[in-house]
Write a structure and sequence with these properties.
Helices cover about 0% and strands about 40% of the residues. By secondary structure, the protein is mostly beta strands. The strands form 8 sheets. A 5-stranded antiparallel sheet has the order 1-4-5-6-7, with no helix packed on it. A 5-stranded mixed sheet has the order 2-32-31-30-29, with no helix packed on it. Strands 16-17-18-19-23 form a 5-stranded mixed sheet, with no helix packed on it.
């Protein structure tokens, strides 16, 4: 799952290679301070708002943003339960930006589309939440209801697709629109998109060269914000009514699983022969470890059982609402939005520890990443907690970013790349 040290750094989509959130390709920093410049390689302003994560291919870093006419469009962070939409409804420019990984210099910035958003955003969200995907030749960016766009690596437009209005708001209060967040995934010559929305949701595979549909599978689930996982010829998706695996070649359903939180956000995570799926909203916060390679049909555990032929183990508590877990060196790390971190054995689900990061008053939205024997957890206020990988909780450092941060960081060699509210920041270990 990691980029070999001899190759140029690659973090080609949301959470890097195989959406693992893991790269052991370099020595990573443990302490830094953006406000004083300690450990900061460069810091580049990015106009507008966006929660898309940095994507890396060699010496290029890509992010997106939505640039409105308001100087302060407003981003409300923290722990709260309001379901209201933001008042940021004016005209926007949806942009893709390319930055030099070595220097932080802006290489190019392209406007994909201009207009008034077709769907309002959440007060904690932006109009540019999805992360781009690249295969080194093409760059695919989703702006939800504004369309799916493909560029070459120099920003030249290749094709665009209108996928309709992708309203992924709260299913119980449809007027509370929250925007769209699922990121596209490139798998060979296809682009996979998961569009669980208020009406007529679907999972689709598009031709990477043309943007035309290869197949489309209807989904009868509530709106979700999860990015699909593609592994061993399967597309694995999170859901409430329908967690499942689909055949990448045909779109045929392979297996399904029902249950959990009713607003699924985390991406399924693969380690070995298991895929880990979690969600947490409402009364349930499960974690499922699915034998995806052999699973078939409905594998939902019945009668109070915690396992089935297709489920190696599960737990009904301890799952995450916002963050995608990270599977690293034999353990699964699940951080909840209130900073409670749980560590479990990958094979058995046995809990190793549970602790709270931060004060309990800080929100955590960005997903964890891991490398060089360390796991990184980013709070919304810009504080980053660094923990040693292993069955005991051992803090080994931390840093500050100087701004709110809700986007998952990227790892590129010995660099950590953070996308904050107004900047793209490169952190490097001193002496690396």
């Amino acid at each position: 799952m990691s980029t070999p040290p001899s190759q140029p750094p690659r973090w080609p989509g949301f959470r890097g290679i195989d959406a693992s959130g893991v790269s052991d390709s370099g020595k990573l920093p443990t302490t830094w301070d953006v406000e004083t410049g300690t450990g900061v390689r460069w810091r580049t302003p990015i106009p507008g708002l966006g929660h898309s994560s940095p994507v890396v291919w060699g010496d290029r870093v890509f992010v997106t943003s939505a640039v409105g006419k308001k100087e302060d469009a407003g981003l409300r962070t923290g722990l709260y339960g309001d379901i209201e939409s933001s008042a940021d409804t004016g005209e926007q420019e949806w942009r893709v930006h390319c930055v030099d990984r070595r220097t932080g210099r802006l290489l190019w910035s392209r406007v994909a589309v201009r207009g008034v958003p077709k769907v309002r955003r959440h007060t904690k969200g932006t109009h540019a939440n999805p992360t781009v995907a690249t295969d080194g030749r093409r760059l695919v960016a989703s702006f939800g209801s504004e369309g799916l766009f493909c560029f070459d690596m120099d920003g030249k437009p290749l094709w665009r697709r209108d996928l309709g209005v992708l309203d992924a708001g709260y299913y119980e209060v449809p007027d509370a629109q929250w925007g769209f967040a699922s990121s596209p995934v490139i798998a060979g010559n296809r682009v996979v998109v998961q569009c669980d929305i208020q009406k007529d949701g679907f999972l689709a595979a598009l031709d990477l060269a043309t943007g035309r549909d290869v197949w489309r599978a209807a989904r009868a689930d509530v709106p979700t914000w999860s990015t699909p996982q593609v592994v061993s010829g399967q597309v694995v998706v999170n859901g409430w009514r329908h967690i499942g695996g689909y055949d990448l070649a045909t779109g045929r359903e392979v297996w399904r699983l029902q249950g959990g939180g009713d607003i699924p956000v985390p991406t399924p995570v693969v380690a070995g022969d298991l895929v880990y799926v979690t969600n947490a909203h409402g009364m349930a916060s499960p974690i499922y470890a699915v034998r995806f390679r052999t699973a078939s049909g409905d594998i939902t555990p019945r009668g109070g059982a915690m396992a089935s032929e297709g489920v190696a183990w599960s737990t009904l508590r301890g799952g995450a609402y916002m963050q995608t877990p990270v599977a690293y060196r034999g353990h699964l790390y699940v951080c909840r939005d209130n900073g409670v971190l749980g560590c479990r054995a990958l094979e058995t689900g046995k809990e190793a520890y549970e602790v709270r990061l931060g004060t309990g008053r800080t929100g955590f939205t960005a997903s964890a990443v891991a490398g060089d024997g360390k796991v990184y957890f980013t709070a919304e206020n810009g504080e980053v907690h660094v923990v040693a990988a292993g069955p005991r909780f051992v803090p080994v450092g931390g840093g500050t970013l100087g701004e709110p941060c809700l986007a998952t960081p990227a790892i590129a060699g010995s660099d950590l790349l953070f996308r904050t509210q107004g900047h793209l920041v490169s952190i490097r270990r001193t002496g690396a």
